[in-house]
């Protein structure tokens, strides 16, 4: 079952868990280039799921063009406006993976707000907004412009996906992370999955590309074993070129080498 922590993959996880549907809309990317952004509808089209990353995300810009002084969340605002036109009563917004640091200023402009400088002049999209980063970036903008409520992403997605029901009768949970470290235990999807599995008495195997400092903290959450792809004889090039096949191979090998008793 797909899970996410409020960043990339949140729309897919919630749409899959709720048997929802997708919509697409044309928006401006973080540098003004046209982008086709996808969002989801669930709960009989009463709730929309949007992600900042698909409209104003870092992956939409080549490395050599990345400059947070020039990027804008205007396209994310357009995405929110498209979701509103669906007639939804609730919008769940994942705000990870941003290429911007405008504090949601561009988003506000796309939604009809006028932002002025000290002389009463309109601020251009992508203009530096003093304190935007310190004020919490787009999350702060969502609160200021839309009276949004900020909640941890991983618990919301895991609960909506119905993980607890799926744990009934399970012998083993397999989850994963690109690089497992101390942060994985705090707010990331694998850590949240491990909490629920531990409560249900189900052992957890976590597959990762590599290990970083502090990965041992996951043991306290209920992760029984952490296995990296390199430990299972898979080199980085193979993992990057064929991730699905290599993950399947790593899971099979790990399950053969390790035993978990309930």
Task: Explain briefly what this protein structure is.
With 262 residues, the chain is of the alpha/beta class.
Explain what you see.
The protein is α/β, with parallel strands linked by helices and 262 residues long. It has helices at residues 10-18, 53-56, 74-84, 105-110, 137-146, 153-160, 163-167, 189-199, 236-241, 243-257; strands spanning 21-28, 34-42, 47-51, 90-94, 173-180, 204-211, 223-228. It folds into 2 domains: 10-154, Glycerate kinase, domain 2 (Alpha-Beta Complex); 163-257, Rossmann fold (3-Layer(aba) Sandwich). The protein is built from 10 helices and 7 strands. The longest helix is centred in the C-terminal third of the chain and has 15 residues, at 243-257. The chain is globular and about 65 Å long. The two termini are 21 Å apart. The relative contact order is 0.12.
CATH uppermost class of the largest domain: Alpha Beta
- Helices, by number, come to 10
Identify the CATH homologous superfamily of the largest domain. Glycerate kinase, domain 2
SS strand fraction: 15-25%
When the domains are counted, the total is 2
Broad structural category: alpha/beta
- Give the ordered list of helices and strands: HEEEHHEHHHHEHEEHH
CATH topology-level fold name of the largest domain: Glycerate kinase, domain 2
**Major sheet description:** 4 strands, mixed
Helix content: 25-40%
Q: Globular, elongated, flat, extended or rod-shaped: what is the shape?
A: globular
Strand order of the largest sheet: 1-2-3-4
- CATH architectural label of the largest domain: Alpha-Beta Complex
* Radius of gyration based on Cα positions: 20 Å
Contiguous low-pLDDT stretches (5 residues minimum) are 131-136
Distance between the termini: 21 Å
């Amino acid at each position: 079952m797909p899970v996410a922590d409020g960043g990339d993959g949140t729309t897919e996880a919630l749409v899959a868990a709720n048997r929802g549907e997708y919509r697409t809309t044309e928006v401006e990317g973080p540098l003004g280039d046209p982008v086709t952004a996808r969002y989801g509808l669930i709960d009989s089209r009463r709730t929309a799921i949007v992600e900042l990353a698909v409209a104003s995300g870092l992956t939409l810009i080549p490395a050599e063009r990345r400059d947070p002084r020039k990027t804008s969340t205007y396209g994310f605002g357009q995405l929110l406006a498209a979701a509103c036109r669906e007639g939804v009563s609730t919008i769940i917004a994942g705000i990870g993976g941003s290429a911007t640091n405008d504090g949601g200023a561009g988003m506000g402009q796309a939604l009809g707000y006028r932002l002025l400088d000290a002389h009463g002049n309109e601020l251009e999209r992508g203009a530096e907004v003093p304190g935007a980063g310190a004020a919490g970036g787009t999350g702060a903008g969502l609160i200021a412009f839309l009276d949004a409520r900020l909640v941890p992403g991983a618990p919301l997605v895991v609960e909506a996906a119905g993980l607890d029901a799926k744990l009934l009768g399970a012998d083993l949970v397999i989850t994963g992370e690109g690089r497992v470290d101390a942060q994985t235990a705090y707010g990331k999807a694998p850590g949240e999955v491990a909490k629920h599995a531990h409560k249900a008495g189900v052992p957890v195997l976590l597959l990762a590309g590599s290990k970083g400092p502090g990965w041992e903290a996951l043991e306290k959450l209920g992760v029984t074993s952490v296995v990296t792809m390199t430990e299972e004889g898979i080199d980085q090039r193979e993992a990057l070129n064929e991730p699905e096949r290599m993950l399947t191979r790593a899971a099979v090998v790990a399950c053969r080498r390790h035993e978990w008793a309930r």
